[in-house]
Amino acid sequence: MTKKVYVTPGGLTILQAKAGLIVAVLFLLFGLVFAVVVVLDTPSSEGGLIILQIAFFLIWVAACLSIIVFCARLLSKGKTVAQNSLIDMYLAETTGPPTPGTADFEARLHQLERLRKDGLITEAEYQGKREQILQEKW
Q1: Contacts of 69 by beta carbon, 8 Å cutoff, 6+ apart
Q2: CA dihedral defined by 32, 38, 44, 46, rounded to 10 degrees?
Q3: Above pLDDT 70, what percent of the chain?
């Protein structure tokens, strides 16, 4: 039986959600003030430019509101940082043939001994591989 570690991307932490909420609100306020200043400063004869500016600021507001809603929904769930982190790690035990780095040393040494006795490897190959197995971390 071997153990495998699975790492998957997690979500935002609570601290990051709070920071995102604050930044999005500040961006929204900045965008609204900037929109008012720009639209009032634009001459009324530039109708097409005013429409383009209004469209841009509507997209800006929609983006800021979507970030605010996303962060607020995450915060309303009340998850802790441990439950909602940037990286989720899972340790799973698997059955099947062991991988060379994690196999049982005794079984690998016995298998190596059988290969030498059956004449499938030379004495030099046996000694080299045996040293390699013994040098691995137990």
Answers
A1: none
A2: -110
A3: 72
Burial of 28 (0-12, 13-18, 19+ CB in 10 A): middle
What is each CA distance from 3 to 70, 93, 97, in whole angstroms? 36, 4, 12
Distance CA 70, CA 67 (A): 5
Assigned token pair, 127:
């000694």
Tokens coding 1: 């039986």
Contacts made by residues 88-92, CB under 8 angstroms, sequence distance 24+: 88/7, 88/8, 88/9, 88/10, 89/5, 89/6, 89/7, 89/8, 90/5, 90/6, 90/7, 90/8, 91/3, 91/4, 91/5, 91/6, 92/3, 92/4, 92/5, 92/6
**Residues 3-15 pLDDT 10s:** 666 666 666 778 8
Q: Is the separation of the CB atoms in 91 and 5 below 8 Å?
A: yes
Name the pTM for this structure: 0.51
Strands, E, within the chain: which ranges?
A: 2-9, 87-94
Torsion, Cα 70 72 77 78, to 10 degrees, reads 130
Cα separation, 108 vs 101, in Å, equals 11
